[in-house]
Design goal:
By secondary structure, the chain is of the alpha/beta class. It contains 16 helices and 28 strands.
Length: 653
């Protein structure tokens, strides 16, 4: 009997057992893993490049390494000689399984590359950078003389004067930081310097290159966080470090490499050199914050969720592995609590609830929702473990936002027939020209915004009950209600691939939205309020969901829908403000020091709020503002049944 082995693909997390000798590319196709290939498996195009995970993977119970694939074939050697393969890369069309193995599919090998939706938002920012350029005249071309003349006015610590060639007109441009130190020097006239605002998310990383004098965003770029290969969510990455001594070094290395790749990308797009970049700001959740700094994140994985560093940092950019101008500095805003990071500090700086008379709820929706509530009198903050369901993970046909992903859904309440839109097309599926518009894109799955809308539409159409059960009796009304073992599913798309919404998918959304609502409600209790004046949804995901459907599902408490809005990439905007305005740094540090932290993991009321928030839109809370614009199905009669034990929020990251 032929021996079979486990193969797991990252970052998708899809896995299966295959016979020895199975091609990696064939295994990927059978599992629905996104790997490109156009040459028919002949080893010519090189688009199916993969990397092998090395070491113990305790979660999978296997040891993976290059030895668990066949030896390198002549086709791969030929391709490497002609076009070059990165160290450790194999061609998926030539590599065969000979043992249990973890395969990393890099972004460039994916057909449906993720759309990184962290663009720079338009915002008026007062420009007060801590670095300014000065053109000076020097009396001599002798380095020693120049050094002495400059040192009489400014600090020159660490500056290499000897490497500067003074032009005939005896002029030089110096970059002076905080009116005290010269951090860079150029011969002659140098007209501009730049900085980068980084938003390091657990899923995606974005970089915005700004002119430090004008504030203009010169270029923006984003990529998937390469740490995903070590774990889909934050807790998985912390667990990886716990189970692999020294694993934090691997995670730090890959995220710093990503920051440098983004720096090169935006510099190239703007037509400047890395030497022109003198400042960066970096924001991220506490785990990302610690890993960028090279700190062990494991204290954040267990109660009491202790931060190693919580204060703001102003350090040399080289200390976080950035290869920019040698004099470049990095500013990292303060973290707020063990699960509320510098990214939330940046959101607060961007949205400025501390200047408002209104009670504002700000939710940065992600794998770990970070929540801020309050106004100029008081601010509270917490995090809620929503998990990755909102981003397409743990969903039957789920995927990240990429061309071909369903992102909008509507269901006819009478026939239960759906129509939808996919990323990359402006047409709805029932419109003329839809098939032509997705030619070359196809339909590949459903992303976070589409999942929110389809589950909400299923609820409004009566397919899903308020308790989150897909009603099998609806199969009398439509053949799209299909039996799935002992439960039922909804057939959203009949084709290749077949896209269904299963009972488990609905449950995953319930768990995620229940945790998010419970966190918000906990802060409202602490503040002693039942009414919100405004709700702001931040983050890439929050910016692309329809606020009406978010409220139909009960992700957020009831509020006048005209006062619920998307804040865009508020963390990125806050990072840009801190980059361009030195006074804003002191301002946010002062505000953060006064924020009251609420730890959901140890709050007894959180579990009760979570249980009640499992229902659509909620088991007991009224939604009068929502009912003005949406006809909600009649709420089921209240019961005294005890909650089922299996209903638990996602793990605290």
């Amino acid at each position: 009997m032929t021996e079979d082995f486990l193969i797991a693909f990252m970052p998708s997390g899809k896995r299966g057992r295959f016979a020895a000798g199975t091609l990696v590319l064939n295994a990927a196709r059978e599992l629905g893993v996104d790997i490109d290939s156009v040459c028919g498996g002949r080893g010519i195009c090189g688009r199916c490049q993969i990397a092998v995970g090395e070491g113990e993977f305790a979660k999978l119970g296997i040891t993976s390494g290059p030895q668990n694939l066949n030896t390198v074939r002549v086709e791969e050697t030929r391709y490497d000689h002609k076009r070059g393969l990165k160290p450790g890369r194999r061609l998926g069309c030539q590599a065969r399984i000979t043992g249990d193995v973890v395969i990393d599919v890099p972004p460039e090998s994916q057909v449906h590359k993720q759309v990184v939706r962290k663009r720079a938002e338009a915002r008026d920012i007062t420009i007060e950078p801590d670095i300014r350029l000065h053109l000076i005249d020097v009396a001599t071309a002798d380095p020693a003389g120049i050094f002495q003349a400059l040192e009489e006015q400014w600090s020159l610590k660490g500056l290499d004067i000897a490497s500067v060639d003074v032009p005939d007109d005896k002029t030089m441009t110096v970059a002076i930081r905080n009116q005290k130190s010269i951090i860079a020097i150029w011969p002659g006239y140098h007209d501009a310097i730049y900085g980068i605002a980084y938003d390091v998310g657990s899923t995606t990383i974005a970089a915005h290159l700004c002119n430090l004098a004008t504030g203009e965003v010169m270029a923006s770029a984003g990529l998937m966080n390469p740490q995903i290969r070590f774990g889909e969510d934050l807790m998985s990455r912390v667990s990886y470090v716990m189970m692999n001594p020294g694993g934090e070094k691997e995670l730090t290395q890959v995220v710093r490499q990503a920051l440098n790749e983004l720096a090169s990308s935006v510099a190239s797009e703007a037509g400047i050199t890395l030497n022109d970049i003198l400042a960066v700001t970096i924001v991220g959740n506490p785990v990302m914050h610690h890993l960028v700094l090279g700190l062990d994140p494991t204290p954040l994985g267990v109660s009491p969720f202790t931060l190693t560093i919580e204060d703001a940092l102003d350090i040399a950019a080289s200390e976080v592995g950035l290869t920019l101008n040698p004099g470049a500095h990095a500013y990292i805003p303060p973290c707020i609590a063990g699960h509320v990071g510098a990214d939330t500090a940046a959101v607060i700086l961007s949205e400025a609830p501390y200047k408002s008379n209104q009670i504002i709820l700000i939710v940065d929706v992600g794998t770990n929702a970070e929540i801020v509530l309050g106004n100029k009198d008081k601010l509270l903050a917490c995090s809620s473990p929503t998990g990755p369901a909102f981003e397409g993970a743990q969903i039957t046909s789920g995927q990240r936002a990429a061309p071909g992903a369903i992102e909008r859904v509507r269901i006819d309440h009478d026939t239960l027939e759906p129509r939808f839109k996919v990323i990359g097309s402006d047409h709805w599926s029932d419109e003329d020209g839809f098939d032509e518009s997705i030619s070359g894109i196809g339909i590949s799955g459903i992303c976070g915004s589409g999942i929110i809308e389809v589950v909400a539409e299923m609820f409004l159409a009566g397919i899903v009950t308020a308790d989150g059960v897909i009603d099998g009796k609806q199969d009398e009304k439509s053949s799209r209600i299909i039996a799935n073992d002992r439960t039922f599913s909804y057939l959203l798309h009949e084709g290749e691939p077949r896209i269904i919404i299963s009972q488990n998918d609905v449950r995953a959304i319930q768990l995620a939205k229940g945790a998010l609502y419970a966190g918000a409600r906990l802060l409202m209790d602490r503040l002693g309020i039942d009414h919100l004046d405004r709700i702001s949804l931040a983050g890439a995901f929050g910016s692309h969901i329809d606020v009406k459907y978010a409220m139909v599902l009960g992700l957020i408490p009831d509020c006048d829908l005209t006062h619920v809005s998307a804040a865009g990439n508020a963390a990125g905007t806050g990072a840009r403000i801190a980059l361009l305005n030195r006074h804003a740094r002191a301002e946010i540090e002062d505000v953060v020091s006064k924020v009251e932290k609420v730890e959901t993991a140890i709050e007894p009321a959180f579990q009760q709020h979570f249980i009640e928030a499992m229902a659509f839109p909620h088991k007991t809370a009224a939604y009068p503002n929502l009912e003005k614009v949406v006809t909600l199905p009649q709420r089921a009669a209240q019961t005294n049944d005890k909650p089922r034990r299996r209903k638990r929020p996602p793990r605290t990251p």
